[in-house]
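Researcher: I'd like a candidate sequence for this fold, 145 residues long. If you have to choose between options at a position, lean toward the conservative one.
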């Protein structure tokens, strides 16, 4: 999708997929999508912006479904049937921000509730014979007993 918006690190427990933001050195505000030029906080005179990985988990702040084919530049083959998708707004408590994204495939609005814990996972935005465009999805965290 957009270079520098996320990272994947291979580790002993599999992949660590993270969204990347930037933090202002002067006011500690965190931004996503990342900001590399100036602090977006209007009360801050600005400071050095540093790349930071965002929290992997958050809580559902809101959600809805998309039942229409969005217009260009969204990549969509008009010859294929339209499949509704679920959008999730997730609050990242540590960063004090809400990040919007699609739910993972198979997750519908019936599977979500405000306040439930979700995690960011890699997803496919589009692919062709030469390229796979990666994006992020939000997936409910399985309850542990």
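Model: Candidate sequence:
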């Amino acid at each position: 999708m957009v270079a520098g918006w996320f990272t994947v690190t291979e580790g002993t427990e599999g992949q660590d997929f993270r969204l990347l933001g930037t933090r202002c050195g002067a006011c500690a505000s965190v931004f996503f999508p990342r900001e590399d030029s100036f602090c977006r906080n209007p009360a801050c005179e600005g400071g050095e912006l540093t790349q930071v990985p965002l929290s992997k988990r958050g809580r559902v702040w809101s959600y809805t479904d998309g039942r229409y084919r969005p217009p260009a530049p969204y990549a969509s083959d008009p010859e294929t049937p339209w499949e509704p998708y679920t959008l999730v707004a997730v609050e990242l408590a540590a960063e004090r921000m809400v990040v919007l994204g699609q739910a993972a495939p198979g997750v519908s609005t019936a599977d979500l509730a405000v306040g439930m814990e979700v995690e960011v996972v890699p997803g496919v935005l589009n692919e062709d014979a030469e390229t796979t465009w990666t994006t992020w999805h939000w997936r409910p965290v399985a309850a542990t007993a």
